[in-house]
Amino acid sequence: MRYYSEDLQRLQQEILEKKRTKAKLSDLQIQQAELKERTAKLEKLMVKEQKDVDRLNRGSLSAFFYRASGQMEEKLSKEEAEAYAARVKYETARNELWSVNEDITRCLREIEGLPECEERYQSLLKSRTEQVKNSGAPEAEQLMRMEKRLSLVY
Known about the structure:
Elements: H1 6-58, H2 61-69, H3 72-112, H4 117-135, H5 138-153
């Protein structure tokens, strides 16, 4: 008689997969928090750099000074390059955050797809154990002795 079934094996695999997915989810949530913070900082830097460009283009007092000294083009080019670099860094971080959010969603769906596999495994294992005990097979006697020893320990 075969007591260990493919069902038990499948449920064990589901339990392992659920544990792996939960560990991955935990790592992703840490990454998500770090990326949110980084993205927020980069967004502030991007806005600041763009304001610098806008101030020069609007004709502020500093823009007047740079025009008068003949350094306006050089300063504007430098500020535009800094604004562009800040925008690229921000967009890169935002895309990374989006990707991590997608991975988190995927992990949550995977975990959702493995509901109560631990409980189903325990229930099936208990059922199989009862089948062995009731079978009268040599394994039944051995199983009953093991249970008795365990009950004395606890």
